[in-house]
Amino acid sequence: MNMFTRGFQGRRTAESDRVPPGQYRTDDFPVLSVGPTPRVDTDDWTFTVTAETGAAHSWTWDEFLGLPQERPHVDIHCVTRWSKLDTDWVGVSLDTLLADVESTAEYVLAHSYGGYTTNLPLEDLTDGRAWVVHTFDGEPLAAEHGGPARLLVPHLYFWKSAKWVRGLTLTQEDEPGFWEQGGYHDYGDPWREQRYRGD
């Protein structure tokens, strides 16, 4: 005897509503990188925001740690289909880092130690939506996860949260980064399954 109405899928829970289509939840934190992991000593680390005019604003590690720190508690979603819920970070809001930067740019190209780049609309880094983070789950961010600091843009697929970040270049035109040049989607919204070009 059939106990369910045809097409019954069960009830979605509040937690499952936080997992985008095509994703599965994991409690692990998978490590996915191309090439060797850069090892950046905090004594050598700097973060630089360069406006489209060429004007640059830079912070050493100690100056960066002296900025107001925030504690984002967010879900993250990888293009390889895993989602990790309720992650805890410590870092500096991009609103803080961009506060004194005069710019009319609409786009950003993020640069990493090791040569990796990724592109984002500037508006996706402001209004409390993005951070440069240095701590994960109460511990200094491990090199394999992008330490000493990485970009954190949790509303987009995680390749947009560039590991080993060293700076941002503000631009008037969109300039595709490493994975975007290789066929990944230019924007990368997990809720719209924008994994690859044309999605």
From TrEMBL:
Stretches the record annotates as Disordered: 1-28
Oxidoreductase molybdopterin-binding domain sequence ranges: 35-179
Cited Pfam families: Oxidored_molyb (PF00174)
InterPro entries found in the cross-reference section: OxRdtase_Mopterin-bd_dom (IPR000572), OxRdtase_Mopterin-bd_sf (IPR036374)
Recorded superkingdom: Bacteria
Protein name: Sulfite oxidase-like oxidoreductase
Organism: Nocardiopsis eucommiae
